[in-house]
């Protein structure tokens, strides 16, 4: 829609994930009301939108369970609401059971939508806590630094794994594609991706702030922002 801007800066207080503004009626009106109410919506069109956000509003054409699970995994514990044209009770119930914090509808008044967004933000961690969940990587030295300051020396395979996941821009990468990429770069067994990720997760000890997420039935993805130093891809 004319007037809606997609930004590339750091995520704001409330990220609004919208794959297509042109296909979303009343978006500008909702954003204007949210800003007038003192909220700071930051519209993004990429699933990497969740990086650094305190809370996320995902505008979706439907409530597909696969998409819901993917969004919940990407948000990594951040409060998440979805706004959908679906009026089916069963769709809303399934979305809530799968981990969504609130299901909104365009049929609700804009005032109620803003009130629900305020309630969503009240569940969010402080801004400094959200910012502190980032990981940093030094590609030249092969060193990864976790949110707690833990420094981890990476193997060549682990670096290649992170490069492949990062190039996917937050979308899940199938295990077969990961195995093929790892095999091409290092000659490793093509079945090794799942084993490598399992070992890497244990090495990271990242249960409280996971770096690699699993989208069941789809593959693996970067679940946190990876700040770069040195040459990446």
Automatic annotation (TrEMBL):
SMART domains: Trans_reg_C. Keywords: DNA-binding, Phosphoprotein, Transcription, Transcription regulation, Two-component regulatory system. It comes from the Bacteria. It holds the Pfam family Trans_reg_C. Residues 126-224 bind DNA. The keyword DNA repair does not apply. Residues 126-224 form the OmpR/PhoB-type domain. Signal peptide: none annotated. The keyword ATP-binding does not apply. InterPro entries: CheY-like_superfamily (IPR011006), OmpR/PhoB-type_DNA-bd (IPR001867), Sig_transdc_resp-reg_C-effctor (IPR016032), WalR-like (IPR039420), WH-like_DNA-bd_sf (IPR036388). This is Winged helix-turn-helix domain-containing protein. It comes from Peiella sedimenti.
